[in-house]
User: Fold this.
Amino acid sequence: MVSRKVTIQNARGIHVRPAGVIVASVQGYSGTIEISTKQGKRASLQSILSLLSLGLASGDEIILAVNGPEEEKICSDLVTLLARNFDFPCS
Assistant:
């Protein structure tokens, strides 16, 4: 298992559009990908509803954990994606 700390950078947090991009990026991954917040909330990154249920806002710090094939690469790619400042407006 590989884990990394990530700070959400998107000005409007992780709303529907960025969540869709993030979840689509790991579609079909055979391992598990989970994020957790400082408040102890946990969610699967392979489910858009699970991700949205966290209500992640700009500046929130999360822990990303990847367990499975190519976990280093998947984790690195997701850190970049989760820390991205998406340029589309909030839905």
